[in-house]
Amino acid sequence: MRITRTGGGHGRRTATLATTVLTASALLLTGCSSDDDSDTDANGNITLTVADFGQFGYKEAGLFAKYHELHPKITVKEETTANEQDYYPKLLQQLNTGSGLADVTGIEVGRIKEVVDTQSAKFTDLSKTINVNDWVSWKEKQATAKDGTVIGAGTDIGPMSLCYRKDLFQKAGLPSDREAVAKAVAGGWEDYLKLGEQYKKKAPSGTYFMDSASAMYNAVVSSSSKQYYDADGKPVYKDSPSVQQGWNLAAEAADKKLTQGLPQFTDAWTAALRKGTTATVACPAWMAAQISVNSGDSFKGKWDISRAPGSTAANWGGSFLAVPKSGKHVKEATELVKWLTAPEQQAAVFKAIGVFPSNKGAYELADVKNAKLPYFSDAPIGQIYAEEAKSIPEAVLGAKDGVIKDTISNQINNMEKRGTKPADAWKAATDSIDKALG
User: 107, 234, 254, 416 - which has most CB atoms within 10 Å?
Assistant: First the structure.
């Protein structure tokens, strides 16, 4: 749910999609700010600022305007930073100096552990306002400090699927029905690579089985509860089974030339989607919109969505809304967060831009439960993602998840594009990570 969301731990939502009618205009980033955003005028009218990154979808879903209708004395303004990698350092600076903070701030899942461990005292405890049991069980635990305070209300999650070009599959002699595709990769990401080898044998000229091995790597790691840290906060990425599995599969994909080697969200990546040269993409819920917008009208109905490889559910992405204690309107800001993350509003955002709710109450609402994507051959995404969300393992998060993930991904890209040997790429990654961890 963030168009340019490439930074941060699990990289979620740099993209979005409408669940009933998908339009590029729904994906335009908007933001605004003013020097007196938090002032109260002579008539008691106040303005609440919401600082976020990429695209959270509230403006697109009309929620800020609706909230003003419900609360005529409150106007909500959004301050949006396109790239989370630019947003987060600014947020840390504001927290450290105690100035410049918005009334409500967004926090990406790959950053939440660091914020909880080092900055929780600066945020309002939302457990007194929201019912944490309304969210998928692991979501609010990610935003809960050791003393039990909850600093963030969950916005979305990124249950995994597989987006694929069924027309290219047909030309390559592969099964194209979504159930048949799911069966073909039921054994896991190893089966996914085997399918890629079959695709390569009869691949339409100029096409590649997958966009990027680093994307597949992230999908593999996201299916495990043990990723980069252990429960005691110790970095264990070097010995993590999921990291080792993901790395080995990525190295195999690069070696067998199954990948285009295009880092996601780069110009080359979007150009490949527009040209139609990519056959599959590891597809968390927020990814489908990025594909549809960049692929364009000419490929509508040629894409489809199947269940992710393997039997273990995966989550890639997600964010939170938090309320700094330093705000001038903490009570009003807290009520706004409660409302924005309630089932009805999360369902409205899903309908508008396709980011999947973390509030379980939204799953039975029609806009989620019955959601289909016309662009993706009417794939029943409400059912696919809700089923996946039920069994996502509770992942152990660490303070530098984002740094580790991004560094490894960069070295996977080097294996793909530069032909770097896996052993050399791994050493470069670990040397860089160890230096960053100190």
Answer: 107
> What is d(CA 103, CA 325) in angstroms, rounded to the nearest whole number?
9
CB 399 within 8 A of CB 382: no
Query: Which of these, 121, 111, 109, 65, lies nearest to 90 by C-alpha position?
Result: 111
pTM metric for this prediction? 0.83
Distance between CA atoms of residues 328 and 351, nearest Å:
32
What pLDDT is stored for residue 9 in this prediction?
36
Calpha distance 149→214 (Å, rounded): 35
CB 139 within 8 A of CB 131: no
Quote the tokens at residue 45: 């009218």
Sign of the torsion angle spanned by Cα atoms 11, 353, 27, 52: negative
Q: What is the pLDDT of residues 344-367, one digit of tens each?
A: 999 999 998 889 999 999 999 999
Among the listed residues 108, 59, 50, 114, the one whose alpha carbon sits nearest the alpha carbon of residue 79: 50
| The two three-digit tokens of residue 34, written as one number | 């003013």
43-74 tens-digit pLDDT? 889 999 999 998 899 999 999 999 999 999 99
CA 394 to chain centroid, in Å, comes to 16
Return the H-helix or E-strand segment holding 216. helix 213-221
Q: Are 377 and 304 in contact (CB under 8 A)?
A: yes
Q: Give me 93's structure tokens.
A: 């600076």
